[in-house]
From TrEMBL:
Organism: Linnemannia elongata AG-77
Segments crossing the lipid bilayer: none
Pfam families: C2
Protein name: C2 domain-containing protein
Domain of life from the UniProt record: Eukaryota
Occurrences of domain C2 (ranges): 1-109
Length: 185
């Protein structure tokens, strides 16, 4: 039996405002494999939260194998009527959780904008629950955690959110070049 990974997504602060009108309607997504969109689990959307949001939501990833799964991928998105917008993302090396007391870690992790610069942070509690265990340890005091910009994760995001990677002056040309079923803005 494999272990489980329990992640409580507490909050995000200092997010970039990606809304043209109004405030961000953010939700967070997590996965152990950034390449498979279907593997992502998500929080609820918080309407009009803006640049600072609180979720306090716990998600569990079953079948966690610490020998082969080394990174937790996190994405924060803005809910839209048609296509959601990427706000920020990060990769969290799980070695810091595995080496923490009771394999439980609460930390603040840097988030990255689509252009690679840091913008905001997300607070998570990450706990490894070994197979057959019913007692879930509580993370200690909040610490600054390690986060990384993974190029493979970034490349997938470029494919999923292409309009965010087009310079502002070229956005209209980009939209007009898309097939009609993709052009809804």
């Amino acid at each position: 039996m494999a272990a489980k990974l329990q992640i409580t997504i507490h909050k995000a602060q200092g997010l970039e405002d990606v809304e043209r009108f109004g405030k961000n309607d953010p939700y967070a997504r997590i996965a152990l494999d950034a390449a498979v969109d279907a593997d992502f689990q998500r929080t609820k959307t918080i309407p009009n939260a803006g640049k600072n949001v609180s979720w306090e939501e716990t998600l569990t990833i079953a079948n966690f194998n610490p020998q082969t799964q080394h990174t937790l991928f996190v994405e924060v998105l803005d809910r839209e009527r048609h296509d959601d917008d990427l706000i920020a993302f990060t990769g969290i090396p799980l070695q810091q959780v595995l080496s923490a007391p009771d394999q439980a870690f609460r930390g603040r992790f840097d988030l990255f904008k689509h252009i690679g610069s840091k913008k905001g942070e997300i607070t998570l509690s990450i706990v490894v629950i070994p197979a057959g265990t019913t007692d879930i340890p509580l993370p200690g005091n909040e610490k600054q955690g390690q986060a990384q910009f993974y190029s493979a994760h970034h490349e997938r995001l470029k494919a999923v959110f292409p309009k965010q990677y087009v310079p502002d002056g070229e956005l209209l040309q980009f939209i007009n070049a898309q097939p009609a079923h993709v052009r809804e803005v």
